């Protein structure tokens, strides 16, 4: 293909956010997938279990993770366990738990809570990350 280069492909990837959403509710994830539509700048990855989440984190290197706390339908702290495992890896983590006492545990870890149905806030988080990343890329070119 004429005019194609590896550098162009790498530049496209730099201007993309990989957002991982971990929740056992398929309805919530379906709603969020709908708001992204065919946005070429967002690679939206859905996970419904701890195992899927850990594999995706390892293989996809997400920039942002939105994580519910209870992934097996019971009152467990699976989300906190995942957050503790990935904290410090340069991934921005947001809690989407509905449980206020668990939200406090996330807050103690410096993890912001986001309402999982607030699609406008979630979109703005991703847009902010993209803008910040693009700004840093432009500065590094100067």
What descriptive keywords fit this protein?
alpha/beta, Rossmann fold, 5 strands, 51% helix
Walkthrough of the structure:
The protein has 142 residues and is an alpha/beta fold. The protein has a single domain, classed as 3-Layer(aba) Sandwich (Rossmann fold). It has six helices and five strands, in the order H-E-H-E-H-E-H-E-H-E-H. Strands 2-1-3-4-5 form a five-stranded parallel beta sheet, with helices on both faces. Strand 3, helix 4 and strand 4 form a beta-alpha-beta unit. About 6% of the residues have low confidence.
Task: Write a brief structural summary.
The protein is an alpha/beta fold and about 140 residues long. It is about 50% helix and about 15% strand.
Layout: helices, strands, pairs:
Elements (H helix, E strand, L loop, with lengths): L5 H9 L2 E6 L3 H11 L5 E6 L2 H11 L3 E4 L10 H9 L5 E4 L4 H9 L3 E2 L5 H23 L1
Parallel strand pairs: 1-2, 1-3, 3-4, 4-5
Helix pairs in contact: 3-4
CATH class: Alpha Beta
* Sheet of most strands: 5 strands, parallel
H/E element string? HEHEHEHEHEH
Percentage of residues in strands = 15-25%
How many domains? The number is: 1
- In order across it, which strands form the biggest sheet? 2-1-3-4-5
Any idea what the radius of gyration is? 16 Å
Number of separate helices:
6
